[in-house]
Please model this.
Amino acid sequence: MIQSLRGMNDLFDEESQRFTYLIETASTIAKRYGFNFISTPILEETALFKRSVGESSDIVGKEMYQFEDKGSNDVCMRPEGTAGVVRAFIQKKMDKQGGEHRFFYHGPMYRYERPQKGRLRQFHQFGAESFGNSSVLEDTAIILMMRDIFDALQIPFRLIINSLGCKVCMPPYKDNLVTFVTAKQADICEDCTRRLDLNPIRVLDCKNDKCQTLYADAPKLINNLCTECDEDFIRLKKLLDDTGMTYTVDTNLVRGLDYYSKTAFEFVADGIGAQNAIAGGGRYDRLVEFLDGKPTPAVGFAIGIERVMGLLTLPEIKREGYYFGSLDEEGIDALFSLAQNKRKATKVHISYEKRAMKKHLNAADKINAQFCVIIGENERQEGKVWIKDLSSKSEETITLEAFLKG
Ligand code: HAM
Model:
């Protein structure tokens, strides 16, 4: 029997209801903040991710679903949504137009990671990207929008923030950090040795306890920000304080993608295991320029839908629409035209199999129909249907005419 690939799940029944509820809730809130829906392809040129997410990141270095297509193009299934949105933004020449452009999106992302609880190879994100605003007011709005989404979904979270500096303060900091870590190189883990060459600041979020102890006195970027980055970070914290948004500053929060500058943040949920980041994001003021666009500041986030789904309690599902069932073969055609008529106004489910009354009632209940409509030999001969309201439990036999009018 063919099975789905490891780390890739089917979504149906209650899971798909959670999924839809989450997307609908988040989309409604994103629209309130002035974001418009954008959809970009799953498959992109590999170079897009190499140049944005970064060759030194684990995502590009180890986890890409990358292959040559039939036209010998080097392509890749997107590991995240930001790069594609930025490419579309530049391709549509919105960078040249100037002004503010805000987009939200959702869809599957692909990372060849080792599957475990909360970590899939195909997972879904709901994300938003805002272009054209360099003010931390927009960083704050983005964080508040995420708060609104999680509040609407009744998901408790903790917010962690950091500043990753800019092209002025990051390079000298990196040099300091490399000097500090190189002095301890004999004792650090293999991953950190690799990071030291490729992307030194990633040593800061090494999960190895020994490394963490060694880095306890490492220089902190937060203490070495340039004046502009420092003032922005102070203002961001003040804006969050003013809106009652609680947060902690974690100077080791460096994020796994290379495009960030200044604000970086993660939303974390407790009680879901080691993979507890339910959303992440930040500012990426240089990415549009890196991808050959006109320099445009930008900030955004993405929520990991599967991680949030596990925490979600669905609102009580209301009964809705009709279930149609027949007790014999002859009744099915009659029901078909009745069902078609009701579909103009409401949700309809029809069974094309003759079944006993009890089976039909159970099936109607399972799909949360409001009414169960049954036809048997007697009803057919009298031009009537039997109908039961599954909420009030009242039942009656009425003429087809009355049924179609009602
Ligand atoms: P990210 O932190 O790589 O950021 O991913 C965002 C969220 O996707 C994570 O917090 C997590 O909830 C979920 N996620 C990531 N990998 C997996 C996985 N293997 N299985 C299940 N869930 C996962 C980004 O992707 C950036 N593009 C966010 C962003 C948008 N930054 C600026 N704009």
In short: The chain has two domains: 14-169+225-309, 322-405.
